[in-house]
Design brief:
Length: 289
């Protein structure tokens, strides 16, 4: 209240301005995926131009077109292999020529961690003893090396240009271990039981470490870096799995696909201007039990 006892609404107006991303350019890896598309919607609704990177050009173009239609801002889809440094460097040059700036990077891309079929000696291919070296290398390349390369190139550009925001999408499984009981099948021998693959935990934990490194590396150049560790999202999982996982979450359910948009908006905007090097866990409370 001011001296005359009247409320000063100027601070509320400033808060709205903190979330405004008009004129900002955001790069989102894995932009054609379930959460990648929602990240794009969150930023576009606040006025940002979104650049969606994915290996699926058709899907990427479709998502970008839909985002543009929904929010009246430019959104483009780019087919790119984020494990290829040369492609990322070429893309950086193209974006600077086209927009003159890159303000936000969301490292969201990851290989599908779904469990596979039986491998050698009857072992399920997702199990540690049977996990293939090729899958290990592929998962690490996309989920961790790709994030490193994008941060190196796009983050380096931000540092040269006066600042920006890097957001790494980790997981609640970066702070807790997978509960393999969630994936058990009835009447299946132990060695044939599917499990959450080891690479998922390794990649997501690595992203939290990368976040802390980047948060200190370019801080003086105005580049902030944080991580978001979301819980699981409901996408028509079977009833047995849903019953099991709901019992592990204080809120009693998985997240809806739109429930991380507000967090993305906060972390990507000036609303979080003093947040740096943090892993923000948004999991319905699962990791506190």
């Amino acid at each position: 209240m001011d001296k005359q006892g009247e409320f000063d609404l100027s601070e509320s107006a400033k808060l709205k301005e903190m979330f405004d991303l008009t004129g900002k350019v955001a790069v989102i890896t894995g932009g054609a995926g379930l959460l990648g598309s929602k990240h794009a919607e969150a930023l576009a609704e606040l006025g940002a131009t979104t650049v969606l990177l994915d290996i699926d050009q058709v899907r990427c173009d479709a998502v970008a077109k839909q985002v543009s239609k929904m929010f009246g801002v430019e959104s483009i889809g780019v087919c790119a292999d984020i494990t290829d440094l040369g492609q990322i460097e070429d893309l950086n040059k193209m974006l600077i020529e086209k927009y003159g700036r890159i303000d936000i990077l969301i490292n969201n891309a990851a290989n599908n961690p779904a469990v596979g079929a039986k491998g050698l000696d009857g072992l399920h291919s997702s199990r540690l003893e049977a996990f293939s070296m090729q899958t290990w290398h592929d998962d690490i390349a996309v989920g961790l090396t790709g994030a490193f390369l994008c941060a190196r190139v796009f983050g380096g550009q931000m540092a040269q240009s006066g600042g920006g925001v890097i957001l790494n999408i980790a997981s609640d499984l970066a702070v807790i271990a997978p509960d393999q009981r969630l994936y058990r099948k009835d009447d299946v021998e132990e060695q044939s039981q599917p499990v959450k693959p080891v690479t998922y935990s390794v990649v997501k934990s690595g992203l939290v470490g990368l976040t802390k490194y980047l948060a200190t590396y370019w801080a003086e150049q105005g580049v902030r870096c944080n991580a978001l560790s979301p819980g699981g999202v409901y996408v028509d999982q079977d009833d047995v799995f849903l019953s099991r996982i709901s019992k592990l979450i204080p809120m009693g359910r998985m997240a809806n696909k739109d429930e991380y948009k507000g967090v993305i908006a906060f972390l990507a905007s000036d609303a979080s201007s003093y947040m740096n090097g943090t892993n923000l866990v948004v999991d319905g409370g699962r990791s506190v039990w």
